[in-house]
Amino acid sequence: MSSRNNECEIIHAGIVEIVRAKMYAEPVLAEVSALFKIMGDSTRCNILCALSQHEMCVCALAVLLNMTKSAISHQLRILREANLVRSRREGKNVFYSLDDDHVRDIFGKAAEHVIEKKK
Amino acid sequence: MSSRNNECEIIHAGIVEIVRAKMYAEPVLAEVSALFKIMGDSTRCNILCALSQHEMCVCALAVLLNMTKSAISHQLRILREANLVRSRREGKNVFYSLDDDHVRDIFGKAAEHVIEKKK
DNA sequence: ATTATAGTTGAACAAGTATTCAACTGTCAA
DNA sequence: TTGACAGTTGAATACTTGTTCAACTATAAT
After folding, report:
1. Dihedral, CA of residue A34, residue B111, residue A25 and residue B42, to nearest 10
2. Over the stretch B12-62, which tens digit does the pLDDT of each residue have?
3. Distance from residue B71's CA to nucleotide C4's C1', rounded to whole Å
4. Partner residue facing A106 (CB), from B8, B54, B106
């Protein structure tokens, strides 16, 4: 009863279709992975973590993270274009803050995971 | 590295110290960003999403995602080393499943964020 | 107007990475 | 033992990306 087709494909075809039907739609998955990709850089993670405490200007973030304003600004642009942070000008300063409470939630869950895993 | 007598540093020094005191410890932040980095690839995101529905063997994942077994296996190794998935051999097949419910949570929050943002 | 500080931007470089390819191991059946 | 299928692995390639550097804009004060 052998076949030239892939055995595994035949045997597990049911599972493949069941899982496919329950998965998030492709556009959603693409955006989810894009979101994680943006959060998956240590500089941006630090920025998000800082902004989840208080709004800050570029210069203050640069001091906090011991990096150049340029490097911070580049990363802030990425976060801004992803609608994760929002900016507000006040005189010479541009203050950034979190644009969405979901970010705080996602961040919290991840930190919880990491901390609990350490034990 | 901005400058030593930076006006902003002086003006916002208070905020910097307050935020620094409230931020997650550096090792935690490093692991959090590492976690997001791992989840921030569309192939791995698809794998995690699939495994959050049902355990699957490499071959089935390859069929589901229309990729080579080699490519899937490489990504599974990364997920395994991060303790996000676990493997179990059964005859010729190796079945993978989520190693942690946190992943499902984090994933869910992110999807919620994306879906709500679309409106 | 000039000067100083805050912030942005584009190009370039260095470092990282996902997939492919080919060769390999492990398991099972004939 | 041989052949077939499931899965893994290392090297190579092509692509992505974070930071630096230098030049730029914007705002405010002298």
Report:
1. 30
2. 778 999 999 999 999 999 999 999 999 999 999 999 999 999 999 999 999
3. 54
4. B106
Q: What structural domains does chain B harbor? A: 40-118 (1.10.10.10)
User: Touching check for A85 and chain B: CB below 8 Å?
Assistant: no
The 3 state secondary structure assigned to chain A is CCCCCCHHHHHCHHHHHHHHHHCCCHHHHHHHHHHHHHHCCHHHHHHHHHHCCCCEEHHHHHHHHCCCHHHHHHHHHHHHHCCCEEEEEECCEEEEEECCHHHHHHHHHHHHHHHHHHC
What are B67-117's pLDDT values in tens digits?
A: 999 999 999 999 999 999 999 999 999 999 999 889 999 999 999 999 988
Name residues 85-104 of chain A with a Cβ under 7 Å from nucleic strand D: 89, 91-92
Least confident of A37-41, A63-67, B5-9: B5-9
Which residue in the block uniquely carries the two structure tokens 């569309």? B42
